[in-house]
Amino acid sequence: MKLTVAFQGELGAYSELAAREFFHADVEVAPKPVFEAVFRAVESGRCQRGIIPIENSLMGSIHQNYDLLLRHRLHIVGEIKLRIVHTLIVNPGVRLGDIRRIYSQPPALAQCEKFIKSLRGVEVIPAYDTAGAVRMIKEENIRDGAAIASAQAAADYSLKVLKSGIESDHRNYTRFLILSKKKAPRSSHAKTTVVFATRNVAGVLFKSLSVFALRDINLLKIESRPIQGRPWEYFFYLDFEGHADDSPCRKALDHLREIAASLRILGSYEKGREADGRVHKR
């Protein structure tokens, strides 16, 4: 029986491409309108896995998904870093000079800013999803507009790729997390994600991070998010090398529990590889 993987967006979205690269295409996918619905689908058991973007190499973190990781009781069980190649997609017969409007998700529009500026007099119109923008220009037969999305979305809706690789920086990657109700199997090349809050005392963040330095544990990322209802207090999300059950990591986390006001392990999982999103046949 194939796994069912929930993702936010329409078929052809980059999240779907990341899911197929991570699971080697042997999955059923379940598009969801919002990120919250991805979490709910996995929690309810309707989907065995979920996939969410957590950060982009050019635009930074997706803060909403950090907040959802804390709000829901799921485990991070994997990651993949997908290279994002944006394409300009139009209805057949539309030429570059015909384009007066470009539709896409705001991060995609921002990542293609240089290309968009090269087209004079073009209006930028945000859409909720990259692939959703492609579906819209087809369904409405828009002849003076284009969408920015993946080549997969163009293939899915039988539209034309006018230009490919229009992102401002070609080293454009999005890191996606895989979510599950169960923990990941132990990996020898693991990383761990935790979230903790500190007490409001001098030097507490320095002490919190020192528990890892004392044991030569490499920190990979730190992200702060405000605690709702407590202005100017923060949760800290931390990625570090190693599995939570490894002796040095376990001792560091025990030490951190003595310092922090709260601590939760979000998951230990295998370090993700970089991948190019291929066009898959339906």
UniProtKB/TrEMBL annotation:
Q: List the InterPro entries.
A: ACT-like_dom_sf, ACT_dom, Chor_mutase/pphenate_deHydtase, Preph_deHydtase
Report the GO terms under cellular component.
cytoplasm
Keyword tags:
Amino-acid biosynthesis, Aromatic amino acid biosynthesis, Lyase, Phenylalanine biosynthesis
- Catalytic activity annotated for this protein? prephenate + H(+) = 3-phenylpyruvate + CO2 + H2O
Instruction: Tell me which CDD domains the record gives.
Output: ACT_CM-PDT, PBP2_Ct-PDT_like
Which enzyme class, named as a word?
A: lyase
GO BP terms, alphabetized: L-phenylalanine biosynthetic process
Q: Where is this site: Essential for prephenate dehydratase activity?
A: T174
Name of the protein: prephenate dehydratase
